[in-house]
Amino acid sequence: MTLAPFVRIVAQGKGRARSFTQSEAHDAMALMLSADAAPEAIGALLMVLRLRGETDEEIAGFTAALRGAVPASLPKADLDWPCYAAGRTRGAPLFLLAAKLVVNAGYSVSMHGWNSHQDGLADLRTSLAALQIVGDGLLYSPLEELSPAAFSLLRLRDTLGLRSCVNTVLRMWNPSASGASVQGVFHPSYRGLQSRTAHLLGDKNLTVIKGGGGEFECNPTKDTAIFGLRAGKELNEVAPATFADTRKLHEPDQAIDIVKLWTGQSTDPFAVATVLATASLALWTVGAAATPEQTSEIAKNLWAVR
Fold it and tell me: Which domains, ranges and CATH numbers included, belong to the chain?
């Protein structure tokens, strides 16, 4: 089977084109992940969806196909943590320290991703190696190893010049079949899309925020709008700012050495507030306590004894 019938569904012209059903989206993504789909057809399909915007059903179908196409090769974790930000506006990945605090609280965390355009202190994999925190409950899996086919779809951005819905699908993927997931987005409109998609997929516990550079990382100087699910019910709340300053999340002239921050060799109240705010929401997502106020106290204690 070719991808042509699916391209016709979404691109045959004004008044005749329509969105995919969830089932059609599943079948289309299954073809894109196989070796049977022509690259021209994949590019055409992804760019049509990019132009008009994807529906909840389409993202749900695409995600279900990815979940079904990749064998369960990862150990099941308590918390899924996708990392797919491009990194142009990022500094040190402080969210890694938040993930470590979650692990120190007794939960397993599965991180997966691929990050283009990152170097220096912003490079995620360099920071992971420098921190030496992988293991003992924290796992990081590179996308190119988890799913070469999905990696190829993501890298089409280099050819097409635009991101596609693949970025969203990878955030929704949850390859470790975790009972909870945290997701960051760059564009606020995707928070609701990902929450509704998770509901269609039968997911139960999810927190989605507009994070630093698109990662799950809170800016403590601003109120954080929280979308997602708790026990399968839609979530729409706000976490208040915790740091009285107007500093941006990542200032080029205020670089943070993440290793020294973790070891206590340097101090930066803003960076610590970022870690704690992020860890608090992650701990709340995984069920460490009933409210963000309670998990905030847990995060502070975990930081103090790290």
Answer: 4-69 (1.20.970.10), 79-304 (3.40.1030.10)
